[in-house]
Amino acid sequence: MAFFLDKKGNYMESIGEVLATNWSGSQKTAQLVRQQILERFGPEAAEQYKPESNTMTYREALKRGYKVIKGQRSLKSITFVEKEESNGATIRIPRTVHLFFVPLQCEKVN
What is the Cβ-side half-sphere exposure of residue 69, based on CA atoms within 13 angstroms? Predict the structure, then answer.
């Protein structure tokens, strides 16, 4: 079983085995978020990153019993929303998604 240190230095079970997120499977956006984690938290954190399990939006984190640690800034990702035009054509509109890296930016609510 994998373990990691949270922001307070406590050993925790791997979040990746416990949670699932709304990640849609884009490798390009996963790499974008991984790069931000690498820059902010270092290579060990970037290795722990699993887009399908340990990054989530503020609302996702709240629903799963986590709160974002005060002062944490979100990681930026992008998704595309499809919209049908009046002429029947479908267009893709880019939307920024604000994510938090659960192991280091969130804590479990008691």
Answer: 13
